[in-house]
Amino acid sequence: MCNMTKFYAEGDNLDQLFDAVYEIMKESFPRDEFRSYEGQKALLERSDYHLKTYEQEGELLGFCAYYVFDEFLYIEHLACTPLSRGLGIGTKLVQDILSEAGNHPVILEVEPPVDKVTKRRVGFYERLGFVLNLYPHYQPPLNPTTDMVELKIMSSFKALKEEEQKAYRRILNQRVYGVDAEFRI
Predict the structure, then answer these.
(1) Nearest-CA neighbor of 124 among 104, 100, 108?
(2) What is the model's pLDDT at position 1?
(3) How many whole angstroms separate alpha carbon 136 and alpha carbon 183?
(4) Nearest by Cα to 168 from 160, 159, 178, 180
(5) Distance, CA of 101 to CA of 78 (rounded, Å)
């Protein structure tokens, strides 16, 4: 039986579940694209930050970390364990977010599609109804020891106009990354 819920654990269960999420994150993302353990865990205290998990028989197989803003929902991280990739778990998590969003746009960041892996990742989101926007976008450094990362924004169901993307980027810069709204705009 599969269980997909928002992240509502307490005490030791919270610590164990978060530890499992963070391990998947470390296996799935370049170091520049996630925060330190402490920085990532601190996000759980925010009311706009959410974490959906996908578990089977008590084992965490995947998760989706996202923010809910008045203007849009932003998927920051989506990942599955290496052995559970390709089983439709990521699709189910994203579909759940899209359903939760209702009429609000959902945006996410991807690496520019330049090789087989990055093109496959973009294709995954396109099959779910996302559109790759070609305007410039940069993720500010998430840690003192990491660099800025050039990414692309994908948006649910329609391409963004350049000014729309800039407006979303300003919100991400301030509320997600904690930098000046005009960072690299």
Answers:
(1) 108
(2) 38
(3) 12
(4) 160
(5) 16
- Of 21, 155, 26, 55, the residue nearest 98 (C-alpha): 155
Q: Give the mean pLDDT of 26-50.
A: 95
Amino acid 15: pLDDT = 87
For 22, the 3-state DSSP assignment is helix
d(CA 151, CA 139): 7
**Total length of the chain:** 185
Q: What is the mean pLDDT of the chain?
A: 93
**Whole-number pLDDT of residue 12:** 62
Other Cβ atoms within 10 Å of 117 Cβ, number: 10
High-pLDDT (> 90) share of the chain, %: 89
Distance from the first to the final alpha carbon of the chain: 46
Tokens of 10: 């307490």
> Model pTM?
0.93
Tokens at 132, concatenated: 């790759």
**Residue-by-residue DSSP string for 114-163:** -SHHHHHHHHHHHHTTEEEEEEEEEEPPSSTT---EEEEEEEESSPPPHH
- Alpha-carbon distance 185 to 137, whole Å? 8
User: What is the DSSP pairing of strand 73-80 with strand 149-156?
Assistant: unpaired
The average pLDDT across 125-144 equals 96
